[in-house]
């Protein structure tokens, strides 16, 4: 199974890049992260997700068909709980970037 998201949609679409540096310990983070991915995949306009991390940096990229879908996900009540816990418990710092994808290409051997 590929860890690279195949959006199955022709551009344009949107990518939300979330880069983060975590605090020490889990404090319920992994469980919440899994729930958020499961919930995001059920949202209207969701196209795919990619995520990776090491001891210093986490990067998650989610793909959406519209800015409205991104806004709706941002405002989802369960996601808002996760956002608050992220700010108060899980992240030392984070950055969020929303990009319009104009072109994509996928290669698979």
TrEMBL record:
Domain of life, source organism: Bacteria
Molecular functions per Gene Ontology: monooxygenase activity
Keyword terms of this UniProt record: Monooxygenase, Oxidoreductase
Gene3D superfamilies from the UniProt entry: 3.30.70.100
Secretion signal span: none
Family annotation (InterPro entries): ABM_dom (IPR007138), Dimeric_a/b-barrel (IPR011008), Jasmonate_Hydroxylase-like (IPR052936)
Pfam families: ABM
Residue ranges annotated for the ABM domain, each copy included: 13-84
Protein name: Antibiotic biosynthesis monooxygenase
Provenance organism: Pseudalkalibacillus berkeleyi
